[in-house]
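hey can u check if this looks right to u? its 327 residues, i copy pasted from the old doc so theres a chance i mangled smth
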Amino acid sequence: MLKAIIPVAGEGTRLRPHTHTQPKVLIHVAGKPILGHILDELKSVGVTDVTLVVGHMGDRVIEYVKKNYDFKVTFVRQEELLGLGHAILLTKEFFGEEPVLIVLGDTVFKADFQNVLRGNCNYIGVKEVGDARRFGVVELSEGKVRNFVEKPEVPPSNLAIVGLYFIRNTPMLFQCLEDLVQDEQRTAGEFQLTDALQRMLEQGAEMRTFLVDGWYDCGKPETLLETNRRLLDADSHLTPEVRKGNIILEPVYIADSAKVSGSILGPYVSIAEGSVVQHAIVRNTIINQNAVVKGILLDESLVGQGAVVNGRMNRLNVGDSSQIDFS
């Protein structure tokens, strides 16, 4: 039995206006919600039990997971957003001695966990990056993690922490989280998971890293569009009927229930369920569920759930249930 914790309580302020009316993890990218990509990957590696820490519009997250997945799922509410470490601590009563996989809710990933799951220590997912000053990084000694450093001016390594953690010594993690809260140790006003992991290191826990080649950030509009491009390169979806009366420049994802006509679509377009696209030119754009796009050229745009866009060439970031008419 493999268990996972996914904290998804954040408000997603960098993705507003979309997150005013939609939980960040339910925003679509490359054909499915961010959370759907995460859960599909967890299922493929053998996870059977999932604990989700919900907050902002958590009822929608609960509804989505129950409707689409057969995991044994526990939902925990984080009423006050006190940080990632606090979110993980709220799940303590659901875990004993068994190891746990922690996956941040804004990180779509592709990784090989087989060696990690067979290992006998704790593992931190990392990715080699060009400019490590923009990330939290690990400092290594003889292949083991010795220190966590947040956005260092002089990075001790180029290994950025990507939000994937396999913790074998679960009781020690929760004890360190409790000590963190008891001591009121906050970073940037919040209780941080990496501070608890640092305490584990200081108490003798062994931690190693594993490389994550497929790490896709969904935290803000430009990275969401970049993730959409990279995921579509790996897997696009088209029904045969959609090519009739349209010009498709792949890779493109168009949901089976979407209706498109008289349009030029792609590359890098994702159109969600129930959407309508007519007489439009759309590229490098995500169109969420039940949106309507007509008579317009869109590039590098996000169109929210239920939004209506009519008109001419523009670059847009349109929130859910909005209506824009340029005619």
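Helices lie at 34-44, 58-68, 84-89, 114-118, 170-182, 193-202, 221-234.
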